[in-house]
Design brief:
The protein is mostly beta strands. The radius of gyration is 14 Å and the shape is globular. 27% of the residues are buried.
Length: 116
């Protein structure tokens, strides 16, 4: 069984920074990619950033240059460094892992609130 646990969310003023963490436990066979998604009130869940098994990254246009996704394989942890936060970044942020046989696994989410 795979478990994903997010942490690091909270309340921050516009222009501030937060770092989200996603601790991954369990066996993942044939990892395809890992990523962060977010869902704001009344909106659909959207991809924020993704990192492939090979280490390639891609970002939503709205966060390019401000957010950085990374992972520490030794710690089985993925991170999202968020800088220059804006009120429109307010959302619940979800950790996602996609693997060959399991498909998508999700964390329960962590709330990020950016005040203006």
């Amino acid at each position: 069984q795979v478990q994903l646990v997010e942490s690091g969310g909270g309340l921050v003023q516009a222009g501030g920074s937060l770092r989200l963490s996603c601790a991954v436990s369990g066996s993942i066979f044939r990892l395809n990619h890992m990523g962060w998604y977010r869902q704001a009130p009344g909106k659909q869940r959207e991809l924020v950033a993704q990192i492939t098994n090979a280490g390639s990254t891609n970002y939503a246009d709205s966060v390019k240059g401000r957010f950085t996704i990374s992972r520490d394989n030794a710690k089985n942890t993925m991170y999202l460094q968020m800088n220059s936060l804006k009120p429109e970044d307010t959302a619940v942020y979800y950790c996602n892992v996609n693997s060959l046989f399991r498909g998508d696994d999700w964390g329960k989410g962590t709330l990020v609130t950016v005040s203006s």
